[in-house]
Amino acid sequence: MSEAKNFIEQIVESDLAEQKIKAVKTRFPPEPNGYLHIGHAKSMFVNFGTALKYNGSCNLFFDDTNPAKEKTEFVEAIKNDIHWLGYSWDKEVYASDFFEIIYNYAERLIQEGKAFVCDLSAEEIKATRGTLTEPGTESPYRTRSVEENLKLFREMRAGKYADGEKCLRAKIDMSSPNLNMRDPVIYRILRATHHRTGDKWCIYPMYDYAHPICDALQGVTHSLCTLEFEDHRPLYDWVGINLGFAPKPRQIEFARLNVTNLVMSKRYLKKLVEDGSVHGWDDPRMPTLAGLRNRGIPAAAVRDFCERAGVAKANSECEISYFEAVVREYLNAHAPRAMAVVDPLKLTITNYEGSEEIDFEINQLDENAGTRKVKFGKTLYIEKGDFSLDPPPKYFRLKIGGFVRLKNAYIVRADEAVKDKDGNVVEVKCTYFPESKSGNDTSGIKAKGVLHWVNAETAVDAELRQYDHLLKDADYAGQDFSERMNVNSEHIFAAKAEPYLSSAQEGEAFQLMRTGYYKKCTENKKLVLSEIVSLKDNFNK
Fold it and tell me: DSSP state, 3?
């Protein structure tokens, strides 16, 4: 059975078969005005993945035509994110590499009567653009001579005019049914220090004009972008045709990746960082790739999610629970198991003396993982919620007279609850059954519940962090992000953990038994266990 091809692959294979192209060349084109988020992982998957599949190459292309918002910090963060996801680029290219060429092409359009300098303000241009049902109104400056336009455009470059005082517009068709073709602005005056060219330029090309030129100069065969650029494709083609690019790059649009409960707007993500709603671009609650990496999400799981989401022509939305299910599936197969106890309750085994090392399964799903040694002793900690003096029906955790198995160890029976002066249970005294040891149980005792635990003698203090989504569940029409924000999305608990976690590698992911998947890190010499994803799968398959 042949492998199913997505629509982009079908186009690429057709172009190769018809010898329209000799080799596939794509580019991943982020603007360095913020950190990349999970939606950009989809674009990476499409651009790098398509080139890789057809033995082509993919450039990293920085669209740095808006210096007011761009920083070297963002450039470096983007490169780190690409490497983290496991991709590598052929060439590192910037729109600013081509500023002089892009400018010369603009002069050529002026000389051919295809561009003019306009004195209308941005508001006036918008007011004269027309509507979907009414044509626009031509600028009174549209009939300027080639000589005058060249003179004014060169004066714009020389810094003679104030920001917004003049602009360069393509001369196309003010009655076009596509509003993007109604004499679009292709250069504007903007005095802002550029992260690479400094103050050399005070005029900058607009993205829709620079984009097709930069693609052509890189030798891009397929310009793969998201659906919001579909209406811009006629302008992309107009620039390429009128500048005589042959072969002209082919723009193909695909559906962007939308995920519920995530802020998928760089502008609003920046606002969250700047107003202190999160700890930074790499806050574990952020959908940025830096945030996912800091949270402990495996890069392989992100790639797997993008592949499962598929490449489509129509926009859709993935449930956040599906993304979490993919991450959980990966971690379940790969993460070693460990034990930590939140809200600890002391458990004393009255008939046990000394200590011993027991075999603890590292990952029962991996037959090659084996076991490690965990110290067992007389005094342990269990979760306070795993004991009840007044248990409900079918309660399989610990209760007076009830039996439970301690994970990979013995069966115990609760005999007595010790309370403090306020009536709170602070200790449970138990009896253990030596013949009930895991792997060699001859006790005949049936214990339905299995509890995780840590040895009180060797346990280390830990801070356990859990996270909710930044956005509440519902996405109602007319709401903005501020109305949907979950202001209590981070929860911090004190915990007791086995010492194995203290000595583990920084950033390693673990399944904390009956708790969730967590990343180990150390902050100010303190063990921190940061939630990656819960154990519970909420995805409705």
Answer: P
Rg (CA), the chain: 31
At 71, list the tokens: 């920083």
Tens-place pLDDT, residues 440-465 = 999 999 999 999 999 999 999 999 99
* Alpha-carbon separation of residue 111 from 72, 114, 244 (angstroms): 36, 7, 15
Angle at 222 between CA 219 and CA 226, to 5 degrees: 130
Q: Are β-strands 398-399 and 387-388 bridged in parallel, bridged antiparallel, or unpaired?
A: parallel
State the alpha helices, DSSP H only, in 128-180.
146-158
Q: List, in sequence order, every residue forming a beta bridge with 189; answer none if it has no partner.
A: 203
CA–CA separation, 363 vs 501, rounded Å? 15
Q: Locate tokens 């003019």: which residue?
A: 116
336-340, 425-429, 435-439, 467-471: the lowest-pLDDT one: 467-471
Question: pLDDT (tens digit, 9 = 90+) per residue, 307-346?
Answer: 999 999 988 889 999 999 999 999 999 999 999 999 999 9
* Cα angle value 170/174/180 (rounded, 5°): 65
* Strand, helix or coil for residue 382: strand
What are the contacts of 358-367 at 24+ separation with CB within 8 A?
A: 358/408, 358/409, 358/437, 358/438, 359/408, 359/439, 360/407, 360/408, 361/337, 361/408, 362/336, 362/337, 363/333, 363/334, 363/335, 363/336, 363/337, 363/511, 364/337, 365/332, 365/333, 366/333, 366/334
> β-strand 425-432 against 355-361: which pairing, if any?
unpaired
Give pTM, 2 decimals: 0.91
Residue 222's CB: how many other CB atoms inside 10 A? Answer: 24
Bridge partners of residue 461, in order along the sequence: 496
Distance CA 97, CA 194 (A): 12
Please report where in the chains the tokens 């009536």 appear, as a residue. Answer: 423
Active site residues per annotation: 31, 256, 266
CB contact set of 79 (below 8 Å; sequence gap of 6+): 60, 92
Written as six digits, the tokens of 258 are: 């939308």
3-state secondary structure of 405: strand
For the chain, percent helix, then strand, then coil, each to nearest 5? 30, 25, 45
Tally Cβ neighbours within 10 Å of residue 142. Answer: 12
Contact by Cβ (8 Å): 117, 146: no
Give strand pairing partners of 416. Answer: 429
Token code pair at residue 523: 């902050």
CA gap 62, 197 in Å, rounded:
14
AA identity, residue 463 = E
